[in-house]
Q: What sequence folds into this?
């Protein structure tokens, strides 16, 4: 492959489906064969047992202009690859081997290892969006980070902070929902000012989610109005306050409604835009791609078609949601 570095396979051996040494060796061998089938070139293989390890490998891959990077691991490893390779033009192949696999499911990659590996060999490239989050804490400090799935304020950030690694190991992708059930009696509303592409919305809320991609339970529960991963826009989903019952109604409406704007009861709000700013009173916890990052104001912007990923040529019925007509494919 002229003027391009060798492909790289990055493996997180701590992923839930790679704990067995024998299975991990077989999966890595199958991925190596798939990369050769696709590119005609043998790949380098590196392991990353932490996000810092993954970041170092991915930054080197970008500097070396690798022709293709394939990551085998859970949501954390996949999100780091999306963050670090966004804007590089380097193709990303994903073999999702964690418990939730949110981003992989959202972009249509099969969740079964064998079908995901076959996609590496036979799939097509698709360009998808990435989000950029910037948050400002009460002391004035500002940070920013790219996100593949979502960021948000309020209940979802509290949920991310409260869900233990043990719950995720025991219940897998349902761990967050088991934790959420126990948190329901403590739901409290807050005043939210949400500005989407210059239009301001003021309401009392319990959660504000800004999504680039996502399903609540991969392959099982997703909003009736899809979150489109390649439309150049971010979806804003707000569950309004009103006590436990009102919040429950708002959450169901947010999942079930098929139109933008406020719901008939006013307990949910769905918006769409390229730039979003959220301010809350009292200031709420914030999360970016599942990591709790502090308390303060949150801004998010869409980076259209920033990431090239390998997806199936013909949609696998057991993969994530299909591409919509206005999604871009390259």
A:
């Amino acid at each position: 492959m002229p003027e391009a570095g060798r492909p790289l396979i990055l493996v997180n051996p701590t992923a839930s489906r790679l704990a067995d040494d024998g299975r991990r060796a077989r999966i890595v061998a199958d991925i190596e064969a798939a990369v050769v089938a696709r590119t005609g070139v043998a790949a380098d293989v590196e392991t990353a047992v932490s996000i810092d390890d993954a970041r170092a490998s991915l930054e080197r891959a970008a500097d070396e202009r690798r022709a293709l990077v394939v990551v085998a691991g859970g949501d954390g490893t996949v999100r780091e690859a999306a963050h670090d390779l966004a804007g590089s033009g380097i193709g990303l192949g994903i073999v999702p081997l964690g418990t939730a696999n949110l981003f992989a499911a959202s972009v249509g990659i099969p969740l079964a290892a064998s079908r995901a590996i076959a996609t590496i060999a036979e799939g097509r490239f698709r360009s998808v969006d990435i989000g950029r989050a910037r948050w400002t804490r009460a002391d004035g400090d500002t940070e920013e980070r790219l996100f593949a799935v979502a960021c948000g304020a309020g209940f979802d950030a509290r949920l991310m902070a409260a869900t233990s690694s043990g719950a995720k190991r025991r219940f897998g992708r349902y761990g967050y929902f088991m934790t959420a059930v126990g948190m329901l009696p403590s739901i409290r509303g807050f005043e939210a000012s949400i500005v989407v592409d210059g239009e301001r919305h003021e309401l009392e809320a319990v959660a504000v989610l800004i999504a680039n991609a996502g399903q609540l339970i991969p392959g099982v529960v997703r909003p009736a109005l899809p979150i489109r991963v390649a439309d150049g826009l971010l979806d804003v989903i707000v569950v309004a306050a009103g006590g436990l019952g009102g919040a429950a109604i708002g959450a169901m409406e947010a999942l079930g409604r098929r139109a933008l704007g406020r719901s008939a009861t006013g307990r949910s709000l769905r918006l769409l835009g390229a730039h979003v700013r959220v301010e809350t009173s009292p200031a709420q916890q914030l999360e970016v791609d599942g990591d709790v990052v502090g308390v303060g104001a949150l801004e998010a912007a869409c980076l259209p078609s920033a990431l090239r990923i390998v997806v199936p040529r013909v949609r696998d019925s057991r993969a994530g949601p299909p591409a919509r007509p206005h999604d871009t494919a390259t």
Residues 171 and 178 are 8 Å apart (CA to CA). Residues 21-39 form the longest helix (19 residues).
